[in-house]
Amino acid sequence: NLQSLELSGMDKLVALPNGLRHLTNLRSLSIASNGELKELPEWISCLSSLQQMELLDCRKLTSLPEGFRELTCLKKLQISLCEGLKKRCEGPDGEDWPKIQHIP
């Protein structure tokens, strides 16, 4: 039962591996320094136990999927050095704000 996962420094990673959708007990996910990652998958909502997530230095990541609305256990979302994404997540006018406004 994997509870914590860090995906870091994978320069050629353009998408999260589909197998991660089965990690339903995952509580913490850190995605850092993955320069080619452009989007998070809709199936992110399958990570229903996720309590904290960090998105760090993923500069091509520019939006969040609708599935973020379903991450009801998520208590902490940290976004750093992802400038395009960070602006979209700033409330109340950011385009992605409605997807994450439930996070305390």
TrEMBL record:
The keyword Oxidoreductase does not apply. It holds the Pfam family LRR_R13L1-DRL21. GO terms for biological process: defense response. Gene3D superfamilies: Ribonuclease Inhibitor (3.80.10.10). Keywords: Leucine-rich repeat, Plant defense. InterPro entries: LRR_dom_sf (IPR032675), LRR_R13L1-DRL21 (IPR056789). Residues 39-80 form the R13L1/DRL21-like LRR repeat region domain. This is R13L1/DRL21-like LRR repeat region domain-containing protein. It comes from Opuntia streptacantha.
